[in-house]
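In line with agreed milestones, the collection of sequences with tokenised folds has grown. A representative record is reproduced below.
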Amino acid sequence: MVDAPIPTTTFAALGLPEALATALAGRGISVPTPVQAKVIPLALGAGDILAQARTGSGKTLAFLLPLAARIAAGEIHRAWVVTPTRELAQQVAREAEVVLGAQRTALLVGGAPPWPQVQDLRRDLPLVVGTPGRMVDHLGRGALKPDAEIVVLDEADQMLDLGFADELETLVRDLGESCARWLFSATFPPPVHAAVGRWLDDPRLVKLDGGAPSTHVRQRYVVAPRNGELAALGRLLHALEPARAMVFVRTRDEVEGAVRAIAAEGLEAAGISGELTQEARDRVLGRFREGKLAVLVGTDVAARGIDVPGVTHVFNLGLPTGAESYAHRIGRTARAGADGEAWTVVPAMLRSKFLRMASAGGSRPEEAPLPTGASIVAARRERLAGRVKESLGEKLALPPAFAELVKEHGAEAVLAAMVHRLVPDAPPERAPEPVRPRGAAGGAMVGVFLGIGTADQVNPGNVVAMLCHQCGLSNAQLGKIRLWERHTVVEVPPEVLRQVLSRPLHHRGRPIQAREDRRGYAGGSSSGGGSRRYAPPTDRRRT
């Protein structure tokens, strides 16, 4: 394997057709990223390629642009791109529609009916993008023909980590020795090294960053008090006010706990986990991609393949599983050379372990103080001052009511009053409220029926926010939340039930029915003590 030097940094000089270079310039893309500058000249020629570059470095265009050029020139008739997840396959297909032209890509992923995909394959489209499992299914049925002259294995480390080794062996084997293989991977653990030896023949090597986190990402961490990790995350979110952030946790249960805690802080968040249907997952990711949702919470596995541009902040709640997991997480921000921030909330007892793990991956995160109420208010006022400064050059008339105030009290006094109205002083500091584990409420619990469900595009975080803000509750007063399509049941202590039922509830301006749910309990009578647990019927559960 020979490591290729970085050539000149214009797309035309890399050997791409003028039409492609012009189209890229029209999208504001005039300078190739380092991985594109190295890969494209090699990909325009023959042979296998082995490329290592961090997540978000521009790998997708690095292989799509030469594929488009060679398809347009008639050099190849068909190419495959294999990705680990539906989301990444969909992202590649969307980009391919721009580069190759509309309706020239077949998308083969699970969670969608196979028959429309079979129809696309019958149209003899030049590019096939898909996930390993669904592509092997179509290959076995004869709908997908093993006639690709180039196959791209994108995010190979993730595909092998997700257990797709057998499917990839099948795809590579059926394509035969004459098919060129381009393998892209952010890291090179032993399974990838072994696969390279089996699948690639004397590949040209492109190596950038060595899988290390982006230098564009400023990495910091805060040490949280015991049982105060969620409260610390809430403080960071208030202090930073990220436009689009991802929060990583380790388990499915932690996803719901984090969403609820963030919602209790008055911030809208949603989670993704293996419990979501594909339809619900697509809906959450669509809102996040469109900027309608500021915070997305997920596990490493659930977030695999998600590539949403404009993520400004990544938050790790607790320790990642290792240096590679940490690198993948923080690679979700600072995409394509943009700036970004990565924050880790770590308990004091795990601080040293976190620093050793980060150091093993080539990272040197800086410790930062936990934001106080006063520092959060100061940061908000500074951002307000910035927005005001941006408007100073505009021709704005002072409303008559304010003109009278300025005349009577002076401009400085009026401005100070407005600032304190918009961003009030912080309340006195108090110890963070202990976070109760999911479903660990003590004492007897009763069910509250709410006439709102997944059909109304709500998640547990929305329900928590509604009850906390409209009923004056705290996150600690709520037990398990179970969502159905048309309704939701929330566990609460009996003394809280009256408080909920006495308040008019609404969601997006629509009144919400609320009543006690009496459909049954498991483990004790209706008048029993703390051992009884609410048990709603499970036959209609959707999420």
Confidence is low (pLDDT under 50) at residues 4-8, 433-441, 520-543. The domain at 446-534 is CATH 3.30.70.330 (Alpha-Beta Plaits). The radius of gyration is 27 Å. The longest strand covers residues 217-224.
